[in-house]
């Protein structure tokens, strides 16, 4: 007989209240579990100020254990931090005699560094808990594609750590169909472990919107306002910004708003665009204000560097579906999202390295047509394919637990 899920242990390198797509996605899943009477224990790392251990209980159904630290901007140093700190946290938990037993241990972002914590809580659960690994993307391959990870030795080490985390799991959910098939072909001996676990989001209810933030904008609003909500880093590349740089200002009818963290490398390459008010960079805002602003925009932007050879389904894609705004995608070749967006009639996609004149013509043709006639498709996609309940049911099924009621 299947066991009931009473305690869920969530491991992550980004713990609340840190604001990013990882914590928002986990918060969505954790919120669903708590509404069904499940106790949740978060454990992991949180980027913030000075180094410290923390224990928090935001409500009776949730507890958080972890290390807060100042993440280095240097990729190598940050990697060392993320590799060593989970071992430090395990030692701390042992000294404090923190022993939490659960029926399910879920590791999420970046799972490659979380194996020590997963093993510790598995032992605390008398080796009976199901261990599920969620892979947002194919790491470290995507990082190698865009030049974040350099050197054969570094890539080999990360690939070995990634393989170790997969072997230490009972099931591995890949958030892309193509990545799932690629993983099965790469590890034929563990093919039965891999399954497609789509990204997830719970549709926003009316009370979830707030209006406490007004985005700084141009004095004369341009014809079309396009928003990008999420981290802007090496994974997005600079192809799109190069197009904006080449457009004559007198013929520039688009107002681009980027809301989220920007990596140092990308920020330095687009400072001239910010000064010319060709793009607007905004700090990360709370989810309610973000949704209100996105709904006021004409389209949502997806960006992925053309050098990517892997797939992922960005959380911002589901956010745009929730807000029911058309989607403009500049994606890597053969990305599976292209077919979905165009088949559903909710936007258009081009390759990231498309020539500027082609992109401009596509944008003008799309916005001059009646692009708002299929808004029911946004809700249909979110409800039938990406709803949090569907993802949770898959996780429960793969963990051989009793379905939540």
Any key phrases for this structure?
single chain, 405 residues, alpha/beta, Rossmann fold, 2 domains, 8-stranded mixed β-sheet, 6-stranded parallel β-sheet
Give a written overview of the molecule.
With 405 residues, the protein is α/β, with parallel strands linked by helices. The chain folds into two domains: 7-197, Glycogen Phosphorylase B (Rossmann fold, 3-Layer(aba) Sandwich); 206-383, Rossmann fold, CATH 3.40.50.2000. It contains 14 helices and 14 strands. The strands form two sheets. It has an eight-stranded mixed beta sheet with strand order 3-4-2-1-5-6-7-8, with helices on both faces. It has a six-stranded parallel beta sheet with strand order 11-10-9-12-13-14, sandwiched between helices. β10 (254-259), α8 and β11 (279-282) form a beta-alpha-beta unit. It is globular and about 65 Å long. The two termini are 16 Å apart. The model has no long low-confidence stretch (mean pLDDT 86).
CATH-derived architecture of the largest domain: 3-Layer(aba) Sandwich
Helix % is 25-40%
Unreliable stretches covering 5 or more consecutive residues = none
The domain count comes to 2
Structural class: alpha/beta
By CATH reckoning, the class of the largest domain would read: Alpha Beta
Q: What is the N-to-C succession of helices and strands?
A: EHEEEHEHEHHEHEEHEHEHEHEHEHHH
Put simply, the count of helices is: 14
Taking the sheet with the most strands, its summary is: 8 strands, mixed
Q: Which fold does the CATH topology of the largest domain refer to?
A: Rossmann fold
Distance between the termini: 16 Å
Calculate Rg over CA atoms. Answer: 21 Å
> What is the number of strand segments?
14
Average pLDDT metric: 86
CATH superfamily annotation of the largest domain: Glycogen Phosphorylase B
Q: What sort of overall outline do the alpha carbons produce when their principal axes are compared? A: globular
Order of strands, main sheet, comes to: 3-4-2-1-5-6-7-8
Strand content: 15-25%
């Amino acid at each position: 007989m299947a066991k009931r899920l009473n305690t869920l242990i969530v491991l992550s390198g980004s713990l609340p209240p840190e604001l990013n797509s990882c914590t928002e996605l986990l918060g969505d899943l954790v919120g669903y579990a708590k509404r069904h009477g499940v106790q949740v224990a978060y454990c992991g790392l949180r980027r913030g100020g000075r180094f410290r251990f923390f224990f928090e209980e935001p409500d009776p159904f949730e507890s958080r254990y972890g290390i807060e630290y100042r993440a280095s901007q240097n990729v190598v140093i940050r990697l060392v931090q993320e590799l060593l700190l989970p071992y430090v946290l395990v030692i701390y938990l042992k000294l404090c005699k923190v022993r939490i037993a659960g029926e399910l241990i879920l590791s999420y972002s970046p799972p490659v560094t979380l194996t020590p914590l997963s093993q510790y809580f598995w032992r605390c659960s008398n080796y009976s808990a199901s261990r599920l690994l969620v892979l947002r993307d194919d790491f470290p391959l995507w990082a190698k594609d865009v030049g974040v990870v350099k050197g054969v030795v570094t890539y080999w080490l990360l690939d070995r750590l990634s393989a170790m985390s997969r072997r230490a799991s009972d099931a591995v959910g890949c958030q892309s169909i193509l990545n799932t098939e690629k993983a099965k072909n790469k590890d034929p001996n563990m093919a039965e472990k891999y399954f497609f676990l789509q990204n997830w989001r719970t549709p926003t209810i009316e009370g979830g919107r707030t209006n406490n933030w007004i985005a700084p904008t141009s004095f004369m609003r341009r014809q079309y306002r396009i928003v990008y909500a999420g981290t802007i880093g090496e994974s997005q590349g600079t192809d799109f910004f190069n197009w904006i740089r080449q457009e004559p200002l007198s013929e520039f009818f688009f107002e681009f708003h980027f809301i989220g963290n920007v990596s140092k490398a990308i920020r330095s390459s687009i400072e001239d665009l910010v000064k010319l008010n060709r793009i607007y960079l905004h700090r990360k805002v709370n989810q309610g204000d973000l949704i209100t602003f996105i709904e006021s925009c004409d389209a949502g932007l997806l960006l992925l560097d053309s050098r990517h050879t892997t797939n992922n389904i960005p959380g911002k894609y589901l956010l745009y579906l929730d807000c029911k705004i058309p989607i403009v995608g500049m994606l890597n070749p053969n990305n599976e999202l292209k077919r979905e967006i165009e088949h559903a009639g909710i936007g258009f996609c081009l390759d990231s390295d498309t020539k500027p004149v082609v992109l401009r013509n596509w944008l003008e043709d799309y916005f001059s047509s009646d692009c708002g006639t299929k808004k029911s498709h946004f809700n249909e996609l979110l409800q039938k394919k990406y709803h949090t309940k569907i993802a949770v049911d898959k996780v429960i099924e793969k963990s051989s637990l009793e379905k939540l009621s």
